[in-house]
Design a protein that fits this description.
Elements (H helix, E strand, L loop, with lengths): L2 H15 L5 E7 L15 E2 L9 E12 L5 H13 L4 E11 L4 E12 L2
Length: 118
Amino acid sequence: MNKRYLVPLCLLGLLLLTSCQTHSVLSSPLVKGSTYPAVSPEKVAVYATPKAPKSYEIIAELVAMCDAGQDAEVPIRILREEAAKIGADAIVNLRLNFGMGFWITGLKATATAVKYND
């Protein structure tokens, strides 16, 4: 193999093996005019099913994306933080998707933020 190709190939391999450690979030409020005080992210319960132990009102749809170099806890943590900012008591219907593209591989978590009816 020609030595002038060795360094670029090694750099390309290193780039493909590492991730950028980035993330983004999208929040779509569904209830107009209703605002709730923020809560601690640790108080936001996480349910993979659309059911929760109490009746609730849907307040937002949330989406968090991150590089596949991170574990699945990262987008879930991001969802909890975003749900806490809008005063949600829980996120339900949690879905994790692993996507592959030409240049990037990533994790996408989607969930519904809810407020319990007390």
